[in-house]
């Protein structure tokens, strides 16, 4: 008697509608204008834009100086790059400009390739960012382990603070300041006798004003007040300290004309690693900033559109002599808290900075570098996510290892290496944890007894003692992937050696990869050579399709809906292990319908 085959009926699967190209890459500015944009919206954006510009003004100059560029280049980056980040990006509230996270990479690029190399690397990074966006890889950029982001951010903060010690103390170095921390510290230590009391006072005063106003008057622009106050004191008392005017000749009262840097194949090859690092860090920083804005507002940004906008912004920044631009978390959060309605606030923030360059640029000559160093000292302190750092150290050994590895590599080796190695360690840790979750266990199912009328009685426990001892049932639970394939495969191999029917239940497997499918295929071929029948139950439509694509077709294996159906067919076949054997590949395909 041949076992009857029961067709496998599947409910129709309704796939979600995929967004069109236009929907994916429509800037949020266009979305805002389509919704209707009135005078009240513009008023809210103007207030928010002015608030952010007040914050961005000293930061843009301080970050540029710390990066080895001129303060004017920092302003150009915020003006041109920041405008396009808001105009073309996929976030309603993103504010673009120079970011503290880039100080390490930008300074290293300037030191290795000069200013032309930096501008070329910035332009190439913009093209890379745009390509990442158009290839719709923005979703994968966000798969960065949390310990890695906390670790490299803290490491960057340490390097930023170390880079400001010279200006905080007003030191006069006899040699160029080294970049690596271990080389820098001995030079700074030997130069301590040249420290300037006036510079130390200005730096401490700026730090005190910023921190004091944050506690007492959090809505006041503490950084701008500190910088303006220190400039007034320096000019009024005639202090002999380094200023923007003495070290950089001030800020030109106008904008540069767009121009291309020197481009050659050799130069492109030389700066390409820096460009890739800029693009990688820029994508991480900008998407993290967009996620923060989403969390504060309940909105959703368009990741790939955001990266395309960032790419255009970096190209424009380079054309006007600026450097790397990205979404900045602190300024974006300030924009949201100031009541911004949409991207117009970010565009107006750039316009307000342009007004400063055109009208008040000569006043910047009096700004002491010690005061800007104080601003960056506060920024570096705020960058460190201290509660998160402590929590990750306590949470598990794996997270602590990833955190400390990324943190120390950022300080002593380089940011790119730290991110790559930290990501690799985090991925290995995740694979290890997932492999522990995936399990295989013997199954004691419930079996329905057949009644004479053809119906089934109430379910009763399956009695293994009364069953055929040649039948073994195992159930896999969890994601069946390469991390767990070896251990599960070894268990199934041993079972296939000693039984004539092996039922493997996939009812609790949401996903399997090619390694897992190959493991089952190898098991099925080995079982077939030994006369062991393999029955796969509980497979979803997607799982069956993957298994079928890997050669797991009837009669090599049989497919049934449940363990119960498999056992019932075995019982009806009068002991012959033929359950599902007559289901041809064509029938199986038809049942998938």
UniProtKB/TrEMBL annotation:
The keyword DNA-binding does not apply. InterPro entries: SLC26A/SulP_dom, SLC26A/SulP_fam, STAS_dom, STAS_dom_sf. It is a multi-pass membrane protein. One of its GO terms (cellular component) is membrane. The keyword Transmembrane applies. Residues 461-570 form the STAS domain. Keywords: Membrane, Plasmid, Transmembrane, Transmembrane helix. It comes from the Bacteria. The chain crosses the membrane at residues 46-66, 72-88, 95-112, 118-137, 144-165, 185-210, 222-251, 271-293, 351-381, 401-431. Pfam families: STAS (PF01740), Sulfate_transp (PF00916). GO terms for biological process: transmembrane transport. CDD domains: STAS_SulP_like_sulfate_transporter. It is found in: Membrane. This is SulP family inorganic anion transporter. It comes from Azospirillum oryzae. The lineage of its organism: Bacteria, Pseudomonadati, Pseudomonadota, Alphaproteobacteria, Rhodospirillales.
């Amino acid at each position: 008697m041949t076992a009857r085959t029961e067709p496998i009926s599947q409910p129709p699967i309704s796939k979600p509608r995929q967004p069109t190209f236009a929907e994916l890459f429509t800037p949020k500015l266009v979305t805002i204008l389509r919704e209707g944009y009135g005078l009240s919206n513009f008023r809210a954006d103007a207030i928010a834009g002015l608030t952010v510009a007040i914050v961005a003004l000293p930061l843009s100059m301080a970050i540029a100086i710390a990066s080895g560029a001129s303060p004017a280049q920092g302003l150009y980056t915020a003006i041109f790059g920041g405008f396009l980040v808001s105009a073309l990006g996929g976030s309603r509230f993103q504010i673009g400009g120079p970011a503290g996270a880039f100080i390490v990479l930008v300074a290293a690029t300037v030191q290795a390739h000069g200013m032309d190399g930096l501008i070329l690397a910035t332009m190439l990074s913009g093209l890379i960012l745009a390509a990442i966006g158009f290839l719709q890889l923005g979703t994968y950029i966000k798969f960065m382990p949390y310990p890695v982001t906390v670790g490299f951010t803290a490491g960057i903060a340490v390097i930023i603070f170390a880079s400001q010690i010279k200006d905080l103390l007003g030191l006069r170095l006899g040699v160029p300041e080294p970049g690596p921390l271990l080389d820098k510290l001995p030079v700074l230590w030997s130069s301590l006798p040249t420290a300037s009391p006036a510079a130390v006072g200005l730096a401490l005063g700026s730090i005190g004003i910023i921190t004091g106003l944050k506690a007492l008057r959090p809505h006041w622009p503490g950084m701008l007040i500190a910088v303006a106050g220190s400039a007034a004191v320096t000019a009024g008392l005639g202090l002999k300290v380094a200023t923007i005017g003495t070290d950089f000749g001030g800020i030109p009262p106008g904008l540069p004309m767009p121009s291309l840097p020197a481009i050659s194949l050799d130069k492109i090859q030389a700066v390409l690693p820096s460009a890739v690092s800029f693009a990688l860090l820029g994508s991480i920083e900008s998407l993290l900033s967009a996620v923060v804005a989403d969390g504060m507002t309940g909105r959703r940004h368009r990741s790939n559109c955001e990266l395309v906008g960032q790419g255009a912004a970096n190209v424009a920044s380079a054309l006007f002599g600026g450097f790397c631009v990205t979404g900045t978390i602190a300024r974006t959060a300030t924009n949201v808290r100031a009541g911004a309605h949409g991207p117009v606030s970010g565009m107006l923030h750039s316009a307000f900075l342009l007004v400063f360059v055109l009208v008040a640029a000569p006043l910047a000559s009096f700004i002491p570098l010690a005061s800007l160093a104080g601003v960056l000292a506060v920024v570096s302190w705020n960058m460190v996510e201290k509660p998160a750092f402590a929590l990750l150290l306590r949470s598990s050994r794996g997270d602590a290892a990833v955190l400390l590895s990324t943190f120390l590599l950022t300080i002593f080796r380089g940011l790119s290496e730290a991110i790559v190695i930290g990501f690799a360690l985090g991925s290995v840790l995740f694979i290890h944890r997932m492999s522990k979750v995936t399990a295989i266990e013997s199954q004691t199912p419930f079996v329905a007894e057949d009644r004479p009328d053809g119906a089934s009685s109430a379910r009763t426990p399956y009695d293994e003692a009364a069953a055929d001892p040649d039948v073994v049932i195992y159930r896999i639970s969890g994601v069946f992937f390469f991390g767990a394939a070896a251990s599960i495969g070894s268990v199934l191999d041993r079972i296939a050696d000693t039984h004539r029917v092996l039922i493997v239940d996939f009812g609790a497997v949401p996903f399997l990869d090619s390694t897992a499918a190959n493991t089952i295929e190898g098991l099925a071929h080995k079982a077939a050579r030994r006369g062991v029948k393999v029955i796969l139950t509980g497979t979803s439509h997607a799982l069956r399709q993957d298994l079928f694509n890997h050669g797991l077709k009837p009669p090599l294996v049989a497919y049934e809906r449940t363990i119960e159906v498999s056992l019932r067919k075995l019982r009806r076949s009068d002991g012959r292990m033929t359950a599902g054997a007559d289901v041809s590949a064509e029938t199986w395909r038809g049942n998938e319908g």
